[in-house]
Amino acid sequence: MSGSALKAFDLLFHLSHSGSSSLAKLSRDTGWDKATALRYLTAMEKRGVVERREGEWTLGLALVELASRVPVTENVASRAKPILNELARGTGETANLSAYAGNDCMYVAKADGGHSLRLRSSPGDRLPLYCTAAGKCILSRLPVVIRTQYIAEAKLNPIAPRTITDPVRLTEEIELTIKRGWAIDDEELESGLVCYGMPLDLPRFGFNGAVSVSGPSGRMRQIQDEILAAIHWAIDALMADLGSSPEDEDTPLFGPARGGFKSTDWHRPGSEVYE
Asked: Residue 270 pLDDT > 50, yes or no?
């Protein structure tokens, strides 16, 4: 590896430990002169590997996209597939596992529920964050500074007639997602299709994403609570399998396809907060 590449990695690892740093502090901590450090930082900034915020340098979102390509994502997807299959059977709709990838959400696993009208997506497909349930879930988990920057800079193109294109309204939608713990794509990606999702964070795998279920708008709205209960079961099952060591949690015994869960199993009556 060339000396230049090694220096670039040195800067990246330094930022990963410090979180963020001014040019002066970087120069002082690394022993580099400011001109050299700035030259490397500026080159990496053009690729989105580092970013400049309020006078300080920090790691960039492009690293998330690179991380999404490593085998760990494939490992999560393969282990999640049986749970997604159960979720799809129980709801009769399409179940998806999505991961945060740059300024998009990327589908990494999918299970079809059998109905003819379903989301036309395949593993590897990337969709915008602002108009998908999975994307809104991911946005709800980002640090406020990064989320605000995304909403301010993203081109909120009207993909469908109901797509949210107003930054203020999108901000309110994400705040609502944070409050209630789930998101909805209300025909914002495709007319006639509704999707519900919940965030999924797996710190052991460095995985940030969401589990979602999509289907025809009329049917989905009628069984909203049942769909949300089923997704909640899937999140619990994935967390038990992937989020902690086996001795820490017990894997749920009854999945939605076995009739084991109803909306009342996890929704506190009279509350908007799903937990």
From this structure: no
